[in-house]
Amino acid sequence: MSTVLETSVADCHPASAPDYMSMEELHDVQLMRLRAVVRRAFQHVELFRTRMEERGLTPEKIRSLDDIVHLPFTKKIDLRDTYPFGLFASPMKDVVRLHASSGTTGKPIVVAYTKEDVDVWSSVLVRAFAGCGLHRGDIIQVAYGYGLFTGGLGAHYGAEALGATVVPTSGGHADRQIMLMKDFGVTAMCCTPTYFLHLIDRAAELGVDMKHLPLRAGVFGAEPWTESMRRHIEKMSSIEAFDIYGLSEIIGPGVGCECRRHDGLHIFEDHFYPEIVDPETGEALRDGEEGELVLTTLSKQAMPMIRYRTRDITRILPEPCACGRTIRRIDRIGRRSDDMLIIRGVNVFPSQVESALLQTEGTLPNYQIILTREQGLDQMEVRVEVTPLMFNDKIGALQELHQKLQGALDRVLGIRVRVSLAEAHSLERSEGKAKRVIDRRTS
Amino acid sequence: MKIQQISLFAENKPGHIAAPMRVLAEAGVDIRALYLADTQQYGILRMIVADWQKAARLLEENGFLAKVTEVLAVEVADRPGGMAEILGALDSAGINIEYMYAFPYVRSAGAILIFRFADPDAAIAHLREAGLNLLASDELLNL
Q1: Distance from A404 to chain B by nearest Cα, in Å?
Q2: Of the candidates A93, A194, A77, which has an alpha carbon nearest to the alpha carbon of residue A433?
Q3: Disulfide engineering: A117 pairs with which of A113, A191, A338, B33, CB 3.0-4.6 Å?
Q4: CB count in 10 Å sphere of residue A63
Q5: The whole model's pTM is what?
Q6: Residues from chain A contacting residue B41 (CB–CB below 8 Å)
Q7: Taking CB atoms and an 8 Å limit, are A393 and B60 in contact across chains?
Q8: Which CATH entry fits the domain spanning B3-69: 3.40.718.10, 3.30.2130.10, 3.40.50.880, 3.40.50.10790?
């Protein structure tokens, strides 16, 4: 009896109510919030006001959700240009938290939250976690970096608000992560998918069988990953792997997340309004058409983002999800419009390299793409770390592996690449995110 | 009869063999036999050491890719035809050799052949039948 009760409570977490709103109700909430956020940005953010005025627009002219297409876009460069506080719509006394990007090139990007913004952030994460079947009683290990990066603290407060027990390990120290997963009986893991692959690998080396740990779910995000990577993770660790989406400019992790149907990511669209546009022209595309995801924060106070260009390529799935949630879904994001590499005139995405590597059995996608220019011609090298599973001490077997990888890459990419086998742990990583592309071409 | 051998993966670049060797040297691991199989890009260093558990653990802890494999050690007379005899015995029994290497030992006029077979148990039976001397791990290390 008590089991039945627990299950039903888990499936209908009170915070999840907005996931099931009727379309009419949802549109009313969205329009009301859109008009309020446009008014707020117009009043307090100079850049936005100037752009509105240039278009002869005032907040009053936004009368329906469809009018959103008249509003100007916001781009990443706008956050850099107005560094540090130029896009804030709240006075600093109302800002309770600042986060920033790691800022590998020049100045970082700064984002701000009021108390209410932090609460909204936690509430969407509760909805995300509940959709993954997590609830009070779960032990969630958060191995996203804690600090300026939104991943760690975002997931942390969300998991606490859910009522789960949080193990805030932050990133790094794989051996300790594995020890705590085992000793604390951790049931869910939050980290980047590549970091989890690393943990699977390391656990095997330490003789820890992930399949026999209490761990049953992984909520993975902060970088694009593929279906084949999911299959690999689930096979190697016997967990259910969920894709969570978010970006600091909008709020952090929790903009959208998969439910247990694993058929696209539900966008918490009562707070984040999604549109798809043509990445070249900026023209709005219809539901179902693939293009760049544009998001508007409907309830953000400290730093509203109006029509923010995410550079993420996806499409809106308008059909209702079998899980019963009415909020719309987007397709999993496999690529970003700025991820694209042009090699000898051919478009190549790192995600293609990943699926090619995964096709060859037993290969963890720990790889690096190195681009060089030799005598005016682009050269692409894919370095692949050899894992204990792949390693066989016969030269013939290694040559076979090499040829298999080479063949799979040539087939998928349609161009000739140079494959090389690299020693274990020899490829660079930064903050748990794999450094995938090194471009040494000088233009 | 099976002997534990350490196989190490290394890229074919300056210093890539030196680093793991330094780890073993600092821990006082004695290397008794060694063979490097290489291609232009990478190589596999195969070693028989006095304490294979320790060597495997040290290499792994230091982030090197090493694997323990089982090989057989066969004593061969150091005279023309000695090797042909052994290979003949294996050949007539249809035993496939995955790879092999040899090293001489000084105290007697003999040499040791190290073999890796796909089916070591069948190889052991046939080598014994042919009257050849297979060395156990402690015999090999105490030569």
Answers
A1: 16
A2: A194
A3: A113
A4: 9
A5: 0.72
A6: 402, 420-421
A7: no
A8: 3.30.2130.10
